[in-house]
Amino acid sequence: MLHVACFTFNAFQEQTYVVYDETKNCAIIDPGCSQVHEKKLLSDFIQAHGLQVKHLINTHCHLDHILGNQYIKDTYATALAIHPQELTNLQLAATYAPQYNIIGYQATEPDYFLMPGNVIQLGNSHLEIFYVPGHSPGHIALYSQQDQICLVGDVLFKGSIGRTDLPGGNYATLLESIHQKLFTLDDQVTVYPGHGPATSIGIEKRTNRFCKITPAIPD
């Protein structure tokens, strides 16, 4: 059974996730820890639960989701995985971090790429990679059918959707990702977003006004 621990970090109130099962193997998703106390909070949790960090994954590479990448890599000797279309975002982060008064950002490079259908093995559990662009070009989500959870980054929020006015964003593509990927999941699937509270697929299908328009799918 997968357990999901959530931490809210940095000035953007970004959600960092630690996902683990009974084997104590864990994946860190979108480490946004930038301050010393944030890094300590994350590391203290990992130590207190006796976890072994096996995976470091970015759902996408906007600055607020990657601030702690190098810290995790250095502390746990863990390889960083992203979708290949997020490489530009990752590499540009160091150039615009000062514009957000973020000093001391440590740039990093990915160690390998994730593609749709890839499976992240996590002890006795696994997470399937979905390709869900629209908020950013190479955005991915991580889904466990067994545990009925999906970590969706900035694609879908409780009552809202990801912004599409950043470079590489596309509104129609985002809606298509939501309807053709996320909304095909069971209603009871718990959605863990990159900002704000958790929700479920069923709740968002019924109540999210931003998702009422179904994108036209070409023949």
Condensed summary:
The chain is of the alpha/beta class and 219 residues long.
Indicate the topology:
Elements: E1 3-9, E2 14-20, E3 25-29, H1 36-48, E4 52-57, H2 69-76, E5 80-82, H3 87-96, E6 112-113, E7 119-122, E8 125-131, E9 140-144, E10 149-153, E11 156-157, E12 160-161, H4 171-180, E13 190-193, E14 199-200, H5 201-207
Parallel strand pairs: 3-4, 4-5, 5-6, 10-13
Antiparallel strand pairs: 1-2, 2-3, 7-8, 8-9, 9-10, 11-12, 13-14
Low confidence ranges: none
**Main beta sheet, described?**
6 strands, mixed
Q: Class by helix and strand content?
A: alpha/beta
User: Reading side by side through the largest sheet, how are the strands ordered?
Assistant: 1-2-3-4-5-6
**The CATH fourth-level homologous superfamily:** Ribonuclease Z/Hydroxyacylglutathione hydrolase-like
Broad CATH class: Alpha Beta
* Count of separate DSSP helical elements: 5
**Helical residues, percent:** 10-25%
The gyration radius over C-alpha positions equals 16 Å
Q: Determine the CATH topology.
A: Metallo-beta-lactamase, Chain A
Tertiary shape: globular
| H and E string | EEEHEHEHEEEEEEEHEEH
Number of strands: 14
Question: What share of residues are in beta strands?
Answer: 25-35%
How many structural domains does the protein architecture include?
1
Cα separation of the termini: 40 Å
List keywords for this structure.
about 220 residues, alpha/beta, Metallo-beta-lactamase, Chain A, six-stranded mixed beta sheet, 5 helices, about 20% helix
